[in-house]
Design a protein that fits this description.
Length: 193
């Protein structure tokens, strides 16, 4: 299971007051629970406390890190494009990923699809950030800014999935964009010899 950023708007107090870290700690997955930071986690002064709380809730925080699950899956968690520390280039991240593994990238902002799909290291990219514009007609803006602002797109065998997300930013409204949590069922098939 993965959260691809902007869990916190800019202030940790609402999450603490509503016991959200306790709720998040109940989420379980056979292969682990992972989180990357989004741009909104950096807007306030609480990012370090947020990181500590997510770790206490049993999430593995990935900031330009690779996690190997067994001998068949690699999960690459990227720093957000607005992270104040240096973000590695996509090609630097994927050079250490074996072509023999199923490569999954968690990247808050749906960027670098072209770069991530230039070889067969990466199979699946999960992103959010755009809210699909949140208020129509802003989806025209997000559609121009990102290679994919919502939905699923496959390029050179790499699939990118961009969620409109669950929450909002700024005004707590959505027009022409629905809140969502994406469930993706990935099934592996043994190659026949």
């Amino acid at each position: 299971m993965a959260l691809v950023g902007d869990v916190m708007e800019d202030n940790i107090e609402p999450l603490k007051r509503n016991k959200m870290f306790d709720e998040l700690s109940h989420l379980k997955s056979k292969l682990g629970t992972f989180v990357v930071l989004g741009n909104h986690e950096f807007y306030g002064q609480d990012v370090e406390e947020y990181i500590d709380r997510m770790k206490e809730a049993n999430f593995s925080l990935l900031r330009d890190d690779i996690v190997y699950l067994g001998d068949s899956i690699s999960i690459i968690g990227r720093k957000d494009a607005e992270d104040p520390t240096n973000r590695k280039l996509a090609k630097q991240m994927i050079k250490d990923v074996s072509r023999e593994r199923f490569g999954i990238v968690l990247d808050h902002q749906p960027l670098d699809l072209e770069e991530l799909s230039t070889n067969d290291h990466i199979d699946l990219v999960f992103s959010g950030h755009t809210h699909r514009g949140q208020v129509s007609p802003l989806h025209y803006v997000t559609n121009k800014k990102f290679p994919l602002d919502y939905g699923i797109k496959t390029h050179n065998g790499t699939s990118m999935i961009v969620s409109s997300g669950f929450g909002t930013w700024g005004p707590p409204i959505r027009l022409g964009s629905r809140s969502e949590i994406r469930f993706v069922d990935v099934r592996f098939q043994r190659a026949s010899s």
